[in-house]
Design brief:
CATH class of the largest domain in chain A: Alpha Beta
Largest sheet of chain B: 11 strands, mixed
Structural class of chain A: alpha+beta
Order of helices and strands of chain B: EHEHHEEEEEHHHEEEE
Strand content of chain A: 15-25%
CATH architecture of the largest domain in chain B: Roll
Shape of chain B: globular
Distance between the termini of chain B: 19 Å
Strand order of the largest sheet of chain B: 1-2-4-5-6-3-8-11-10-9-7
Largest interface: A-B, 18 and 12 residues
CATH topology of the largest domain in chain B: Thiol Ester Dehydrase, Chain A
Number of helices of chain A: 14
Helix content of chain B: 10-25%
Oligomer: heterodimer
Largest sheet of chain A: 10 strands, mixed
CATH superfamily of the largest domain in chain B: Hotdog Thioesterase
CATH architecture of the largest domain in chain A: 3-Layer(aba) Sandwich
Radius of gyration of chain B: 18 Å
Number of strands of chain B: 11
Strand content of chain B: 25-35%
Order of helices and strands of chain A: EEHEHEHEHHHHHEEEHEHEHHHHEE
Number of domains of chain B: 2
Distance between the termini of chain A: 20 Å
Number of domains of chain A: 2
Number of strands of chain A: 12
CATH topology of the largest domain in chain A: Peroxisomal Thiolase, Chain A, domain 1
């Protein structure tokens, strides 16, 4: 028996820059805050939910059960199970797909997908030789053995290693990878700055309209996304120095996402459960796909979503032009622009094994309330931010409205999904 | 315990929360007086803003999730300098040295957020007779926008002091040994960690020498840490407004491993911090929701 999995709504903390107002908050604190806001909004206190799936990209080893622990700190019934999932920046969308699939199969009738990241509270890792020495000393049976093991520590071992987002196989950061893609696809500086400025302006307008009033709950004195710069402009952004791609590079701190802290959640359920709880069904999860590219072999690191989109649309008999709204995660402005170019490139799409190019979209349908450049991008949280945002936008447009989500992720992966208003 | 009579007392208004150095030293000088004399006045300080970083560290040390609403035990910590201010004054014959924190009651009348600006008041009540001395109550009240948001009664036993009357029998539910369902491992430096966030500089929590001077073989953890940790363990079970009463039965030496056990009946939660095997209680807590 299959069911429709519908998005009922969502809740997140405002997002903020790393080291800012959430500097003292852990992933656990942030995720609990986002969950408790969701519970308050939909009257779920004391309720046993089918399952909560969440995750963080930067996670302490002591947080092996991060999501379950947050559930226990929240007002949900302590009998609510949870799991941690992680698929880099795609985490918050992958957790949504996981929950939606279980609902569609009838294994659960309600679920919460979530994601959180705190680059302020990131684990500091000790060097590999030091870690091995400490493990050896810990396993030593006698004091003498322990001292012998510890005596092998060298000053060079003591340098702590901050978490890195470098690709292990290429040694390049995500920005450096994207700089190669930017160059390859001929994305110029001006179009990147235009996209970044538009993201800020659209997000600011949505906040002004009260669009986020039922999607965000203030936390630790922050009531709005703290990275948002409503008064930024193409001129201001044009003055910034390149951050990636060398002195001639076109990628700056203004058209790249900032390291951010925040948590997001989405409530999903079967239509029957939503009706029984007198809760609105905004949009159903229609389909999803994950793809990966061979970036160690030279492929564009962040264009994984193109193949995923092509295969999913082929299966659904849809083209990108069939969508009323499109959300492309703004890892970098040039990622969005390269994705749009790749969709419309016959040779590129055929090389991916697709039947042909995916086509073009009306840019007025893209990221209409702003995206990660303006909101910020706490890695695992972004997918769970986009899902309720898009579901609400589609619901406002009326039944049958379709939305596409495309998210790039580290490791050359891409997660995509289709929502449709019910 | 009534807290309403603060208004009728003489009130000493302070510009800011007093520092604890000098007053604490005075409060630690033991009193030889058998007769209990207490300052009559209440001490009040308004416009108190909470330190977000210290609150976050307090939450970490005690095991609370960092939320917009603050733990009620944090509010107790904020009133503590006023306790010391009164006990350190020359009118008080009850001193911290030799006094034992026997019980604590607090009521959270409504959630208090980290952004709320607080008015703190503390006065002393008692003495009440006890079979081993005299009981003295430090009554704290916290107002937000003129309304009482929190009140707390901290009861000290001044050993060897005398108060007129018959000792009241403490109404305590009989302790039934049970297998603990949680185990807390308290590290040796926990007293130091809690001192940093509470500001309570009493050396019996941090120094073996000082602990010995007061008859403890090792430093003991602050009773208010154990109280806070027990509330933190209940976290999501706690209603928005509640009263918590704790009896400090036996101090916990550091480092040590203790047990924790809870039960719920008639809308109240009972939580005991017990010895590792569950045989003996260290702290007994009862939490009742308020509607």
């Amino acid at each position: 028996m299959t069911h429709n999995a519908v998005v009922i709504g969502g809740n997140r903390t405002p997002f903020a820059k790393a080291g800012g107002p959430y500097a003292q908050a852990s992933n656990h604190d942030l995720l609990t805050a986002a969950l408790d806001g969701l519970i308050a909004r939909f009257g779920l206190a004391g309720e046993r939910i089918g399952e909560v799936a969440g995750g963080a990209v930067l996670k302490h080893s002591k947080d092996f059960n991060l999501t379950r622990e947050a559930v226990l700190s929240s007002a949900l019934a302590p009998t609510t199970p949870a799991c941690d999932l992680q698929q880099a920046c795609g985490t918050g969308l992958e957790t949504t797909v996981y929950i939606a699939n279980k609902i569609r199969l009838g294994q659960i009738d309600s679920g919460i997908s979530a994601g959180v990241d705190s680059t302020s509270d990131a684990p500091i890792v000790v060097s590999d030789p030091l870690r091995r020495t400490l493990l050896k000393a810990n396993a030593a049976r006698s004091a003498a053995d322990r001292i012998k093991a510890l005596s092998r520590i060298r000053p060079s071992h003591l340098k702590p290693q901050a978490p890195s987002v470098n690709e292990p196989r290429t040694g390049q950061s995500m920005g450096e990878h994207q700089a190669l893609t930017t160059e390859r696809w001929g994305i110029d500086r001006a179009s990147q700055d235009e996209l970044a400025a538009a993201s800020h302006h659209k997000l600011a307008a949505a906040w002004e309209d009260g669009f986020f009033d039922d999607l965000v709950t203030p936390y630790l004195g922050v009531a709005r996304d703290a990275i948002l710069r409503p008064d930024t402009s193409v001129e201001k952004l044009a003055a910034l120095r390149p951050a990636f791609g060398g002195p001639q590079g076109s990628m700056t701190a203004g058209n790249s996402t900032a390291l951010s802290d925040g948590a997001a959640t989405a409530l999903l359920a079967s239509e029957e459960w939503a009706a029984a709880h007198h809760l609105p069904a905004l949009a159903k999860v229609v389909d999803a796909e994950v793809a990966a590219v061979d970036h160690p072999g030279g492929d564009d690191l962040l264009l994984g979503p193109v193949a995923a989109t092509g295969r999913m649309l082929g299966r659904q008999g849809l083209s990108v032009a069939d969508f009323d709204l499109v959300e492309i995660h703004e890892a970098f402005a040039s990622t969005v622009l390269a994705t749009l170019k790749a969709w419309d490139d016959e040779d590129f799409c055929r090389a991916l094994g697709l039947d042909g190019k995916l086509g073009t979209i009306d840019r007025a349908r893209l990221n209409v309330t702003g995206s990660s450049l303006a909101v910020g991008h706490p890695f695992a949280a972004t997918g769970a931010r986009i899902v309720p945002t898009l579901a609400k936008l589609l619901h406002q447009r009326g039944p049958g409205s379709r939305g596409l989500i495309s998210m790039c992720a580290a490791g050359g992966q891409g997660v995509v999904a289709i929502l449709e208003a019910v | 315990m009534t807290v309403g009579d603060v208004r009728e007392r003489e009130v000493e208004r302070l510009e800011r929360v007093p520092g604890m150095g000098g007053a604490f030293a005075r409060a630690m000088v033991p009193s030889r007086s058998k007769r209990v004399l207490l300052p009559e006045r209440a001490v009040t300080v308004g416009g108190v803003r909470q330190d977000a970083d210290r609150l976050a560290e307090y939450a970490r040390v005690c095991g609370f999730t960092l939320r917009d609403d603050v733990p009620p035990t944090w509010l107790h910590v904020l009133t503590f300098p006023l306790h010391i201010h009164l006990l350190g004054s020359s009118e008080s014959t009850v001193k911290l040295a030799g006094a034992v924190h026997t019980s604590n009651t607090m009521t959270l009348h409504r959630p208090v957020t980290a952004a709320d600006v607080l008015e703190l008041s503390v006065h002393l009540e008692g003495p009440r007779p006890h079979r081993r001395g005299a009981l003295v109550d430090l009554v704290g009240v916290i107002r937000v926008d003129g309304e009482v948001a929190w009140d707390g009664v901290t009861t000290y036993l001044a050993s060897g002091a005398r108060a007129d009357g018959e000792p009241q029998r403490a109404e305590r539910e009989p302790f039934e040994p049970r297998t603990p369902h949680a185990r807390w491992r308290l590290p040796g430096d926990l007293g130091r960690q809690y001192r940093r966030v509470s500001g309570d500089p009493n050396p019996i929590h941090t120094s073996r020498l000082a602990a010995r001077a007061f008859g403890f073989p090792r430093p003991i953890i602050h009773g208010m840490w154990s109280h806070a940790r027990a509330l933190a363990a209940l976290e999501s079970r706690l209603p928005p407004s509640y009263s918590a009463h704790v009896d400090f039965v036996k101090p916990i030496a550091l480092p040590s491993t203790v047990g924790f056990v809870t039960s719920e009946a008639d809308g109240a939660i009972t939580a005991d911090v017990v010895s590792r095997d569950g045989a003996k209680p260290h702290l007994r807590m009862r939490v009742e929701g308020r509607s």
